[in-house]
Fold this sequence. Notes:
Elements: H1 2-6, H2 12-38, H3 57-65
Protein name: Four helix bundle protein
InterPro entries: 23S_rRNA_IVS_sf, bAvd
Amino acid sequence: MRLAWEIKSVNNNKYIILSEQLEKIGKQIGGWLKQLKNSPPLQAGRNMDSCETGRRPSDCQDSRRTRA
């Protein structure tokens, strides 16, 4: 991104906007990586409840109701 700005392929306004967006993305990825490093590893062959697999809480509640 910086190279494109330095060779004038991207104007200042677009560079600022894109840089801010890339910074947000980088922070999100860094947070996800940190979370993965701090979480216990999954065990192979373990039958996990769908709620433990990262699904949304609303999906988990719906799936529990339909299991009867």
